[in-house]
Amino acid sequence: MFLELETKRLILREIVENDAGEILECFSDEDVLRYYGQKSLESIDQVKGIIENFSKGYEEKQLIKWGIQLKGNEKLIGTIGFQEWSSEHKKANISYALFPEHWNKGYATEAVHEAISYGFHKLQYNRIGAIVFTQNSGSIALLSTVGFKKEGTLREYLYQNNIPFDTYVYSLLRGEAKI
Fold first, then answer.
1. Which residues on adjacent β-strands are paired with residue 68?
2. Are 145 and 116 in contact (CB under 8 A)?
3. Is the torsion defined by CA of 56, 50, 140, 112 positive or negative?
4. pLDDT, tens digit, for every residue of 49-100?
5. Residue 15: burial class (beta carbons within 10 Å; 0-12, 13-18, 19+)
6. pTM listed for this prediction
7. How big is the CA angle at 58 (ends 55 and 60), to the nearest 5 degrees?
8. Where would I find the beta strands (DSSP E) of the chain?
């Protein structure tokens, strides 16, 4: 059973097929994808396949992806989740994306805080990692705010628009988390 999470202002819920249009809109936005390391999504059918993979990945304990919505509003404002989930090694990497009109309002920080709390307490992770483009000052600030530590640089680790980019590796250990 997929667990919905709730914060003061947000609901983190399962992404379902009816969300395909909003997911397509988010992940075809140039500003959202600038530092995401992913090609633009192109069709509703493509997104429906991705949503199906989210469901399958959750069932197989490989990933979990929530849609982020404001309380009292059904429309998604972004996504957050864990991938590269390893129960054996008690770890996963976190990723998140919000529509640009919702940036700089504290929503991403609120969602990340709730997700990492869930990861440490319910999924029993010991380590949550993040891979961040070195130019992504917003995500770097967010991760630092919630307690992540920079571990190093991965040179030319991700491509965006056929251009290689360096990324930073961040991590947060259960014992370091202030949750």
1. 12, 78
2. no
3. negative
4. 999 999 999 999 899 999 999 999 999 999 999 999 999 999 999 999 999 9
5. buried
6. 0.94
7. 110
8. 5-6, 10-14, 64-70, 76-86, 91-98, 127-133, 149-160, 163-173
